[in-house]
Structure formats: C-alpha cells, structure tokens
What we know:
The complex is a heterotrimer.
Chain A: H1 21-56, H2 73-79, H3 82-114, H4 120-132, H5 135-145, H6 152-159, H7 173-200, H8 205-213, H9 218-247, H10 250-256, H11 267-275, H12 281-312
Helix pairs in contact in A: 1-12, 3-7, 3-9, 4-7, 5-10, 7-9, 7-10, 8-9, 9-12, 11-12
Chain B: H1 3-26, E1 48-54, H2 59-76, E2 79-85, H3 89-100, E3 106-109, H4 112-117, H5 125-134, H6 141-146, E4 155-157, E5 161-162, E6 164-168, H7 169-174, H8 184-194, H9 217-223, H10 240-254, H11 267-275, E7 281-284, H12 287-295, H13 297-301, E8 303-306, E9 308-309, E10 317-322, E11 325-328, H14 335-345, H15 351-357, H16 373-377, H17 379-388, E12 392-394, H18 403-408, H19 412-421, H20 427-444
Parallel strand pairs in B: 1-2, 1-3, 10-12
Antiparallel strand pairs in B: 3-11, 4-11, 5-10, 6-7, 6-8, 9-10
Helix pairs in contact in B: 2-14, 2-15, 9-10, 19-20
Chain C: H1 3-58, H2 79-87, H3 90-121, H4 127-138, H5 142-155, H6 162-186, H7 190-198, H8 203-232, H9 235-240, H10 249-254, H11 264-284, H12 286-298
Amino acid sequence: MALRVGARRSALPQVWGRQGTLARDEAAFGYLLLLPAALLILVLVGVPFLNALWLSFHKKLLGATDAPWIGLQNYATLIADLVFWQAVKNTFVFTVGSIGSKLVIGLLIALVLNEALPMRGLWRSIVMLPYAMPTLVSVLVWKWMYNDVAGVLNYLATTAHVADHQILWLGDPSIAMPAVIAVNVWRGFPFFVITILAGLQTVPQELYDAAKVDGAGVWARFAQVTLPGILPVLAVTTLFSAILTFNDFSIIWILTQGGPGNATNVLATLTYKIAIPGLELGKGVAVSVLMLPILVLMIVFLNRFISRREELA
Amino acid sequence: MALRSRRAFLLTATSGIGVALLAACSAPSPSAGPTSAPASASGGSRKQVTFWGRQQFLPESNDYLTESVKLAGQKGGFDVSVQLFTNDEHPQKEVVAMESGVVPDITYTYAPALWDQNGYALEIQSLYDDIGKSGGGWLDLADGSSKTTAGKRIAVPMNTEPWFVHFRKDKFAEVGVSMPIKTWDEMMSAFQKVNKPDEGFYAFDGQMTEADWVGNCLQFMWAFGGRLFDKEGTPTINTPQNIAGVKAYTDLFKNKMMPASVVSQKASGNNEAWLSGQVAGVSNPGSIVLAMRKDNKDLLANTYLQAFPSQVKPGSFVQTAGAATLIINKKSPNLDEAMQIARMILAPDRYPTQLEKAGSYWFPILKNYLTLPFFTQDEWNKEVAENIVPWALPATADTGLSPIFDDITISATNDMLQAITVQGKSVEEGVKILADAAAAAKAKFKL
Amino acid sequence: MSTASVLADRARQASADRWRVRVQRVQHVGFRAFGWLLLAIVLVVALFPPYFMTITAFHPPSLSFSRTPTLFSTDLSLRAFAELFDKYPYLQWMANTALVSVCSTIFSVTVATLAAYSLSRLRYRGRSTLSSAVFFVYLFPSTLLFIPMFIVLNSLHMLNWLPALIAVYLTFSVPFSVWLLKAYFLSIPRELEDAAQVDGATRWQSLALVVLPLAAPGIAVACIYAFTLAWNEYLYAFTLLGDQEKFTLATGLTKLIFGDVFLWGMIMAGGVMMSAPLLILYFVAQRYIVAGLSAGAIKG
C-alpha cells in the first residue's frame, strides 16, 4: 500500500498543526503503538495505586473486614509522630549523602579513566562489578563483612591496629547511617562513572587545546572546559540516581531493618514496618503517599531537563 | 559499531536466550495453572487441604512433618499442600494471607492470637481434650499457649520450645563456681567473677532490641516477680517488680558485663557471641545447641543448661517457653480433614519421632513423652527436661493468648530497651514506653 | 621603548612562561599520580566484596563463627555448593529465575519498542504528558504497590503463578525500556525514514525495516537491563510466590536465613551462582551497556 506521500510530505520534521488525514493517520498509529504499554501500566500500576490511595484514607487493620473512613487522620497521626520526621530526616541524609559521594567518586574515577591508561577496558570492567552483582547478594555480602564478631572489616581494622575494639558498623547509631550509605555508594557509583565517562567523551578536544594555548592549568581547564561540558550529564544522572536512592528499600532493610533505634529508618522501611509487622495497612500506605510530592518534584525537574535537551536534538 | 561485532553479539545473545529457555523448559516445569483458593476442587471430588508452617532448622524435621500431613491425607482420602516458611517470611505471609482472605485450612503458627483476632480460629476444645488423653495429659504450660483471654480453646500446642540459659561450665569452674547456679545472688556474684572485659570476655549476652526479648528481658522481669498481664488480660507493666527486673537486665550492660554490641543485636547476636567464645552465658532456644552438635562438640561439652533463678523466691526458677501451635481455619470447608491432620501430627506413633527429628528445638508438651530415651539419655536434652521444662511457662501464662502481647513484642520492647541503653533514659521512663504501647494496643484491638 | 627594555621584557616573559610550564608539568604529574592512586583504591574496594564472597563460598565457615575470617586459602571445598543443591531445589530456582527474566525481557522490550517509537517519532496530542507519565511510573516506589498488588492478584486467583510475576515485572521494565529506547530512536536521523517513505514504505515497514535494525544496539541494551532488573528482583517475588518450587533465586537465597541462624557458607555459594550469569553477561556485553547508560544520560 503506497502512501499518498510523494509531493505533499515535507522533509522538515518540525511542522506542527497539520490538518488532514496524514496527521490523523500519524496520531492513530502513535496511539496504537502506545496502547500495549499504556494498558499494562494502567492496569498493573494504576489499579493498585488507586487502591493504595483509597486505603490511606481508611483505618484498615490487617485482616479486619471493616475499614472505616477516617479521612486525613492517618496523615495527621503521622505528621504528629516524631518517628515519622526522623524517617524524613534519615531519608534526606541517606539520599544526599549517597548521591554526593557517588557524584564525587564517579566524577573523579571517570576523569581518571578518560585518560589513556593501559588496560583501560579491564579497569572499566572491574569498576562495573558492583553494579552488575545482584543487589540482594551484594547487600548480604556487606552484612557479613560488617559483622561485629566474625566480620572481615573488624578483623582487618584490628590487625592493622586502626581500631582497638570491635566497631559496631551496623550497631552504633552514629556509624550505622554512614555504613549503610557506604553500601549504597559501593553499589551505585559505577552508574555515575559510566555516564560521566560517556559525557566526557563528547567534550571536543579543541576546547582543551584552546584552553591550553591560553595557558590554563589542569584545574582551570577542568573548571572552564570539562565541567560546563558535562554539566547536563551530571544533572540528569544525579537526579535519576537521587530518585532511585530515595525509593530504596532493600539495602537498608536487609542491613539494619531501620535500626539501631530508628537511626537508619527511612520512609520506605517505615512504610513496611507500619504496614506488615505493625498491621496498620492504612497508615503504612499513607507514609508512601507522603513520599510522592517530593518524588514528583524531582521527576518534574528531571523531565524538564531531559525534554529541554530533546528539543535541541 | 562494526557490523561484524554487532552480528557476533546478537548471535551470542540469541544463543544465550535459547539456552536459558531450554534450561527452563527441560527442568521440571512449574505447574501450568494458578493455584485456586483452597475451597475449589481441581476437577475431581478430592478435597485439597492446605497446611502452612514454619521451616525448622533441621531438614529432617521438616520432612517428617510434611510426611505426617501427607499421611493424614492418604488415610482420609484428600490431597494436601504443605508450605513451610522461614522465620522472616512466615509472619509476613500470615499477615498477607489474612488480609487477602486466602487462608490455609490448618496452620502451624507462633501467632495464634493474631489468627483469632482476625476471626480465623476455630474453637477446638474437644480436639484438644482428645489429643491430651492420647498423650497422657497436657503439661501445665499447654494451657496458657492454647486458650484466649476469654477462655476459648483455639490452639493445639505441638511442643514446648523453652529458652535455655546456657552457662560455660569451664569458665565458671575457673572462678570457682559450680553448676547448677541455684539462686539469684549466686548468679550475680558468678557473673562478677567471670566477667573479664579487658580480655573481651563477658558474663552474659542479652540483646537490647526486640529480638529474643521473651527469653531475656522478660525472664529478668519474671525473676523479680513482675508480670505483663493480670488474669483478665489487663496489662500490668508499669510495676515496681518489672522496673526492678528491667533495671537488673540493663545494668548488666551498663556495668560492662555484656558486649557492647548487644544494643543492636538481632536474633543471631547472642548465638554468634556464644559460638565465638565471647560470653559465659546466654539465653536462647535450641538453635545454639544444634549448631554445637553439628560443628563444635568441644564447646558443647563445656555447656550447661538450666533455668533462670528467681530473685523473689530463692531456690525456685523462672523460665519462658514458646509453643508452636496448630490453628484450624474457622472458615475452611475442610474442618474435618484439618482435624485429621492435627491428630496425625500428634499421634503416639508419629509424635515421638517428630520430637527426635527436631533435635533440641522441640520438647514434649504431653506427659507421656517426657520419659522418651531421647530426653533421658542425651546429656543436654536431659538437662533441659529436668532443669527447665518443669518451670517453663508461656509468656502469656496469666492471661492466655493475647494480641496485645504480640503487638508490643514487635517494636515497643525494642523502643523500651533502646531508650534505656542508647538514649540514656531512666528505667522508669523506658518501662512506661512499654506500658503505653500496651495500652495503645488494647485500644487498637478494642479489648 | 628601547630595544633593550623590549628584549628584557621578552626575556622576563619567557622565563615566567618557563616557570609556569614547569609548575604545570608538576601539577600534571601530581594530578595523574593522585588519579591513579584513587583508581587503584577504588578498584580494590570494588573487587573486595565479590572476592570475599567467593572465598567464603568455597571455604565455608562452620557455624562456630571463628573470629579470624579467612582472607585467602588454598583449602577449597565445594561443600557449600553441594549442600545447597542437595537440600534445596536450587536448579529449579535458577530455571524459574531464567524463565521469568527471559519472558519479561521479551515482552517488555517488545511493548517498549512500540511505545518508544511512538513517543519519539510520531506526533499527536498529549505526547509529552504521556512520555512523562511513563517515566513517572518507573519511579514509583514498589513498597507502595506491593500490598495492593497482592490483593488485586489474589482476587484474580493468580498468586503463586509465575506468569503473573512476569506481568508484574513488566511494570518496571517497560517504563525503563521505553525511556532508554526513546533516546536511541531520537538519535536515528529522520532522513532515513523520510527516504524510506518517499520510496513508498508504510509506517510499519519503515519501523520494521529501517528503524529497528539501526536501533538494534539500543534494543540489545534494553534487553540486558530488563533481564537484570527481573533477575535481581526480590520484593514482588517474595510476596507473590508461595511454593518453594516456584521460587526465584532471590527468594530462594533468603530461605537460608533461619531467624537467628545465617548459613553464611551456603548464602555466599548461592550468591556466587546468582551473580555469575549476570557478571558474564556484563563482561561480554560491556560495550553495549556503556553505550546504553550513556545514551540515556547524554542524549536524554
């Protein structure tokens, strides 16, 4: 079936608002292709989400058949609860600490790997290792390494005379959060390395040469050529990773279950604790819903960044 | 990228996928259809009865239990489906099951109050009586593990799982203390003598979280005469006896007679402390003894098992014990079949072997079986049967099964101990946290 | 100005230049040395946990918790692996995980390819909103969804059924794949498609014969990521599966934790075997993964 294309179709892709069967054809085709994905998401995500939202407005105890409407009471109780605010604080500390570290380490390593090194491919593979291992496995390995009695980290610390007693990596409230962040950073920094590396490779060599001619030193070249060049990549990667870190549940749950004493309790683990062992489903879901505004803000930012650059493409 | 490398990659990828699919297909394939709700039959007239339980540490125990259930099915002419969950999964599975209404016909659970609270527990006084008769009568502690505060008999206990106080015979002997330790004062002075924090060796390891709370902190509270509930089920937590008990427990930590890590230890913490030779005493159910039987017979030879000496009544002891119980789903259409399963598990020709297969985890709850050779001839089983079981009582002995108890042991106990040992609050303030949580639970469950 | 002062100026300038060049060279060497040192440290840190996992798996500790862990040992044994295969249906778990991962990959990449093409190439009202919506869904926390998901699937009697798990996995692999593939499609020049249409190709033909072959690397990357996401997933598998025979590797691994007893030897052995396929995949397809990660970030 030949399209009645020929002369009528313009080669310029940026012509909007065309009337006629051609545009309608295109729209129909567009919707058709999108249909499977949209249907899937509507059913498998939309329905549970709405269900969850509905739950949050009711006093729903586990197994209870009656679930009276209580409006915003779940939310009110949470906002009045110190544990909730501590979870909020912990979530931010966890997210900002992880992202900051991943960004810095990722950037430094990407800069190093950008140089002409021998066996660069091998180093890159090794750097990818934490990212490639299943999360569950790597978290369990770290849990084993952090063990205060038989853990290898304590063993190394005492034999190297860095510490004179057992360090309670996951047991001391002041060390637990950094310990958990460390695992998240270990797992996630390769993502930053790879994306920044790719971004570095798009910065034209001419800019560096020009800077060198102007007499710029290493630091100046970095600040004036490299950084501006990879800023978009940094922004997108950071935001994306921030969203995933914000949502992260399994790393903290497996390592500390939010302890010791709520020191590492983030919103994701708080939701789980309230809903399952605590049996209060409505209230547990309400915690998740409270996470949404911040998530939405971050996603909107990210999306704006991406679409602005799409338009340039 | 070069065409050749792309093709090569696609080739490897497709063959990889092919291999994976082949592997998936050649391995015994998972059942093609979804599981239906327990009520509906799969095309025939045979009933399908589901049994849920806890996965025991020793696989032989799990296998034997599964076999008992299947045997009941064979005899009764119905199909069975057995699912055993680990410690972490089990509570969540129960929670999710009750929420969704897909509830097994019969379940082996540690949370009978929860099942009752949500309307799933059948009253089974006659079943209880029958089984009791066939076993020579129930031990006293079966009563508190099987009926609710209101007096409804809803559970059939399958065992008693007592906590044991483990003492390092050898280390205590070095400082001139011999076993058994009979009074509270003796125990405290023994702890003082054996404690050597500079050498990294401590008197006792008791967790300061919700883990193992029933076998540690609660026992200290009982030793001082404190109770959690009265007979009507009203919480009686904020009392001088309980405060004294919690104080004695947390003081051990404050006076450096416990390893520093207790403030964050979970259930495996005291196991690890004991097995690594760090402490002279722990309180734990059978997993440590089992671990030693498997891997460390030297340590086992130096272990003595006994109950906790009472502080208020010198010469007597206190001991908490859990119980695995069977609950039958009130709403099940297979009530008769479920009862057959219960009878089979506790039948005189099955139950003794089940106890043996479970190693030192399960102890008899019916009188006839206390004199089994398994419990009279093994040194450590004997110590448990003689020193511990006679004093053993479930945590809810006074009041019967109570959802308030289950609720506060989830995190309020943790909050209490953390407040005292980590956040520097006073013992009174800590105990109040627990008391408040109990009051809140009482309101939550409308009791 | 006199010639002498001009010459003097130039000489001073030259020596200042030489000085600056020397400083810069030292700086350069310094930075490089620092960079290599940092790289070395990071490589060791990245490598140590997997190394330790492997050592523990092949030299299983007894339950006695020695206080001196083995860092290196020639005394290797396969005891942990043997026990794992012996006591648990590990091969079955591996087969289940492979099945679920492969199927969810195939479905999600197919659906995502169509959606991504639509969102990147075709014009219609609401396109950018739909695009954002797809992305939004990916970032939804699974802790919010897993209980209602259980309830919904339960009412459909689809629990404990691997195909249902595959469908659930599509909820995160589809949005992610759409995002990734959209970037790839955007990087394919429109002119090629225009040329095809001038030659008389239908939209379907242009999609299948022109765009897809060019996007093949991107599709390969999307496949790898979707596979990884499904292989690793834990929370949904744990909630929605019941029978031990239906377990995936992630849920199977947690069976080795008995409350207060962690069977570290077997856990590490299980971990080695769960990681190995992924690590091999990543090693082989390294270049594509890098391209995929970067496409998303730099091309948006």
